[in-house]
């Protein structure tokens, strides 16, 4: 007898997928976008959706569960972390002082990811707000080679880093979700 959940997927067409292509909001019906900026934004949107999909259908306790001890990482912690990271990226864009941390001290995004529906709701609101604010701050900069902020980071580098951050954490989300309830799929 094992306390590990049985592996399963909702997909019926391709058993290694998270969901069937017809039900997948990431599926693009047509050609990929034209141009580097549109491609980077498309990948970022896809990874943002993937993170949300990996969290769907779970309650507050499951979202806050630290599935891979001794790590403090949880799905809820990832949502909170990405809200914090989006906020940090805005500091790279501007010339002013960095914005204060959303959750206070370092690692509070993970450490304080409590199994409370109010904390879950707040985390999703924080993520949406911070994503929208960072998107808006970057929208004025169409030249991917333009250098921004005190560090002179190129818009291209910032966009690639955003895609990388979400992609890496979606990989974590795959493992965390499988530990929570056994659901698998890319």
Automatic annotation (TrEMBL):
Region (Disordered): 1-37
Highest taxon, organism lineage: Bacteria
Gene3D superfamilies documented for this protein: dinb family like domain
Classification via InterPro entries: DinB/YfiT-like, MST-like
Protein's name according to its UniProt entry: DUF664 domain-containing protein
Organism encoding this protein: Streptomyces montanisoli
Lineage of producing organism: Bacteria, Bacillati, Actinomycetota, Actinomycetes, Kitasatosporales
